[in-house]
Hints:
Blueprint: E1 6-8, H1 11-23, E2 28-33, H2 39-51, E3 54-59, H3 79-86, E4 93-95, H4 99-102, H5 121-124, H6 128-142, E5 147-151, H7 155-167, E6 173-177, H8 197-218, H9 224-237, E7 242-250, E8 264-272, E9 275-283
Parallel strand pairs: 1-4, 2-3, 2-5, 3-4, 5-6
Antiparallel strand pairs: 7-8, 8-9
Helix pairs in contact: 6-7, 8-9
Bound molecules: adenosine monophosphate.
The site of adenosine monophosphate has 17 residues, from helix 2 and strand 5.
Amino acid sequence: MHEKPLVLDRIDAATQVVRQWKQSGRRVSLVPTMGALHEGHLSLVRQSAAQAECTVVTIFVNPTQFGPQEDYQKYPRQLERDLELLASCDLQLVVAPSADQLYRPGHSTFVEPPAVARPWEGACRPGHFRGVATIVLKLLQIVPADSLLLGQKDYQQYRVVQDMVADLNVPVEVRACPTVRDPDGLALSSRNAYLSGTERLRALGLVRALRTACREYSQGQRAPQLLEESLRRVLGEHEVHQIDYAVVVDGHTLEVPIRASDGCVALVAARVGQTRLIDNMRLVEGT
Ligand code: AMP
């Protein structure tokens, strides 16, 4: 068992603790989350503990990244359970602030996100990445970490944050950690809790579509259009018809054409019942 982390709800207290660590030469790593933690989040915390002396997890459901029709109100909030789950990990600080500390009355300053935020999620969820870029920068101001760990599960978010910190000269290293999946392949997500039993089976269409594209790519298929047809075919076989996008794009620009040096990534977003799910996979050369 690890020592229990310090749990703070005041951001000024959190900054003070982190500054002290940094002054004593300790490396600090930040794992931002919206809570409703699962094994995917915990894997980020473990990877953080392996590379930094001090791991900070933030738990904050960020209102500015939700659209007006989205699930901000019903997003699962379960701090006690989250803290129990974190007890199995080696971390030093949990910061779970109230919204009024992050968005003071009259708050009106936002980060204009980088170009990579425009397509896909950015087009489907106007304002989403503006909210993400803003909260990530704010959290890095509060917790001036040496490294920031994000999940590859939200691949475009990772690319947005990577470009945002580079463009704004934020001295932090951004790392992407592999997507954690259930044994049947479904990518873990806090939103999976919304799925009924039959919806969960249909949701497997996302991972199966991505695996099909991976297989075809490794067998030599390079035409994004044909790979996209396969994505849509497999989604359809699972009765996933409300597809926001199912594309194969450059891993860096998230656009076509694909530049060989960066490899490519298949991105999928679709609605299963009322639940919107996203997933992605890097497409790599076969052996
Ligand atoms: P969220 O709480 O959904 O904002 O996610 C917090 C962090 O956990 C983000 O960097 C996500 O990309 C990451 N994450 C979410 N699901 C997974 C997963 N299944 N595997 C790995 N990382 C994940």
